[in-house]
User: Fold this.
Amino acid sequence: MFMNENVDIFIYSHIPFKPIVTNSVYKVLTNNHAPDEEFHTNLPIYRDYVGDNISENNLMFNEYAGFYWILNNWELKDYVGMLHYRRYFNFLDDAPNIEKIFSYGIKVILNKRFFLQYPPGGPFKSNREFYEIWHNVDDFDLMGKIVKENYPQYADGWDRMSEANFIYPSSLFIMKTDMFREYISYALDVMNKFNDARGCHTPEEWLAYVDAHKNEYVRPQHRYYDVRMQARATGYLVERCLAAFLMAGDDPLINHAVEYEWSVIEVPRGLGGQKMTVK
Assistant:
């Protein structure tokens, strides 16, 4: 087991959970107020509502509320990563030498790409087409406009992402710290500008907005995509902003990242880390 003393990988959660890892490279970051004992781990536990934070807006920002906390409160080492409380890179505790991997020219370690097909097993869809099936595509186009106007260096990346038939879901990655700062600063800025454009600055305002525009948002054929889920539009869109960031420029990061897409182990809901499936 390599120690990776210059790496921090955070596991973000909104509920108490039992991590399936024990390596000291991992840290738990949560916006839940449950006592440490309910996490059943010896890993250090940090709260994203302590210090400079946007934790109260988690419904809008999802794990990016955690990214904000890391960027503004954590003394960053050379490499930083983020996982989801149910999703882990499949190396688990047997973490490789991260610095050595990056020494080969790798720019970022990513979740394996998810190919967009609808219905499942059916035709491939572009990101824009797939988003229109599940969400309000006007939001997709608005975010694209915001990215292009404010970050022209990522404009070609947005166009490539829009036409691509895959996405990197869940914002799982390990990056060098300078890249992390660049990406998260851009992502948080466009998320805020998107919320400004929709006039929604709190989760309650987003819930009210989506409720007032149900015809554009709610997908009754998909049982999870009700008002509450669609009110997380900003969080869904920022996953596309990550892909735009990776696909931008004459030498897109995607050219380097494709060599280090890691399979992800997903813990089914409610099983406390006792059963796992490889994605």
In short: The chain is about 40% helix and 15% strand. Residues 273-279 have pLDDT under 50 and may be disordered. Residues 177-198 form the longest helix (22 residues).
